[in-house]
Amino acid sequence: xxxNSKAGDKVxxxxxxxxxxxxxxxxxxEKGLNPxxxxxxxxxxxxxxxxxxxxxxxxxxxxxxxxxxxxxxxxWEGYEFGFEKAVDCLKKEYGITGGIFGDVNLDxxxxxxxxxxxxxxxxxxxxxxxxxxxxxxxxLIRRGGRAMLVAIRSDLVDQKWLGKFMDKEYINYCISxxxxxxxxxxxxxxxxxxxxxxxxxxxxxxxxxxYLDNHALFEVNPA
Length: 223
Description:
Elements: E1 10-14, H1 19-30, E2 34-42, H2 55-65, E3 69-73, H3 79-94, E4 98-100, H4 107-120, E5 123-125, H5 133-142, E6 146-153, H6 168-177, E7 188-194, E8 204-212, E9 215-222
Parallel strand pairs: 1-2, 1-4, 2-3, 4-5
Antiparallel strand pairs: 6-7, 6-9, 8-9
């Protein structure tokens, strides 16, 4: 765990819609930080850059958590500019002084967060930092979080897991085939539909499986 903000500080949550950003949000609250908004980066198609989720699903999550959602449209090439623009907006609108990020152990991700936070003059917080990868997923399950597998590397993960909820069986499966049980290497992504801090579970319908390069994406729509 790496916490730089002080108890009571207003912070945003870098929000993917998946289990890592959600668990980081919960742990940061328990440390006394004050999350006041969610921040998601989306592409021109209106889907999140990280998990390919529709903006409407992110908005449903924000409503269930009782927080406003700020979305910033970016390209991969313009990501840093978009980050700076979004943080500047959140400073003015909510008075944030820091951010919460769900990174676990990739040094290049921590270094990027540190660089951008310094540039934007905010504190950065990594509540999951250096947590055992298995324990990340187990902690989510232990707390009652429900995370649906919505994207997988189809060359690494059996497609049968798409649309299912992360559980101990899935964790054991990942370990048995030698991949990260929390998807830190991009093996799988999730959508959290219920758990602590949710005022109500999300209502949704499911659609087709889409394929993009070596990824399989499970379509989830608002009900």
